[in-house]
Amino acid sequence: MKRKLFLLVIPALFATVAVVSCKKEKPLSSESNDVTTTKDGAQFVVDTLNSKVEWKGYKIFKSENTSHFGNIKFESGDVTVKDGKLESGKFVADMTSLTSEDLKNDKENLEKLNGHLKSGDFFEVEKFPTASYEITKVTPAAEGDYNTLLDGNLTIKGITKPVQFKANVSVKEGGEVSIATEPKDINREEFGVKFQAPAENGVIKDEVTLQIMVKALEKNKTFIIQLIIFRFIEKINNFFI
């Protein structure tokens, strides 16, 4: 009986994820770039277990001693590769997963900070559960520490604005794409995050540093990995029956 329930729950779970991931939230305001990229090429799916957005916020002076840092998981995403080069991509971040890493050993203050960041004072995740970055143009870079310039549209709290990232992009023959952007300062007030703490608690900087780290797998490879995970979970379930 337990096994039957398990086999019914798993397909339902995948179906629910697919429905949630396909939701389209219309921007409240937009100053977006025109999309010049295409989906013409090999399709890759973001490996959400091994991809993330790293963030860092600051008080008063921008220094390690006055900052909080953490990460945000991805809900979904896709990448297109054409002739061995990145052609396009869109990444959807799960804002409900936002958490601080510097306070991970301080449960009480971690919960307070995470709750505050998810509240209406900051990212209002109940109303805006996702954020996204859609690549609109990919340009090879010949100089500097990064091999690619990514132009794209960043959407946070329903507000979309054009943002350019320098990035290192790698397309491997084994069916894997990795993208690591530069740490880049974003003005949070431009995206409707305008909270300011009382002066005695320390003035919060308007700049938030974001860095996107993406690993994407070719679609057929992603399916195989999902199947292996499914079989592994099924064996564990059978063991306890």
What is this structure, in a nutshell?
With 241 residues, the chain is of the alpha+beta class. The protein is built from 3 helices and 12 strands; from the N terminus they run H-E-E-E-E-E-E-H-E-E-E-E-E-E-H. Strands 1, 2, 3, 4, 5, 6, 7, 8, 9, 10, 11 and 12 form a 12-stranded mixed beta sheet that branches.
Textual characterization of the structure:
This protein has helices spanning 2-21, 107-118, 219-240; strands at residues 29-30, 42-46, 52-59, 67-82, 85-94, 99-100, 130-140, 148-156, 159-172, 176-181, 184-187, 204-218. With 241 residues, it is α+β, with helices and mostly antiparallel strands. Strands 1, 2, 3, 4, 5, 6, 7, 8, 9, 10, 11 and 12 form a twelve-stranded mixed beta sheet that branches. The longest helix is centred in the C-terminal third of the chain and has 22 residues, at 219-240. The protein is globular and about 50 Å long. The protein starts with a helix and ends with a helix. The relative contact order is 0.18. Mean pLDDT is 83; it is low at 2-24.
Give the key terms.
alpha+beta; globular; twelve-stranded mixed sheet; disordered N terminus; 241 residues
The percentage helix is 10-25%
Mean pLDDT: 83
Distance between the termini: 9 Å
Query: What's the total count of β strands?
Result: 12
Q: What structural class results from the helix and strand content? A: alpha+beta
Biggest sheet details? 12 strands, mixed
Elements, N to C (H/E): HEEEEEEHEEEEEEH
Question: How would you describe the shape?
Answer: globular
The DSSP helix count reads 3
| Gyration radius, in Å | 20 Å
Low-confidence runs of at least 5 consecutive residues: 2-24
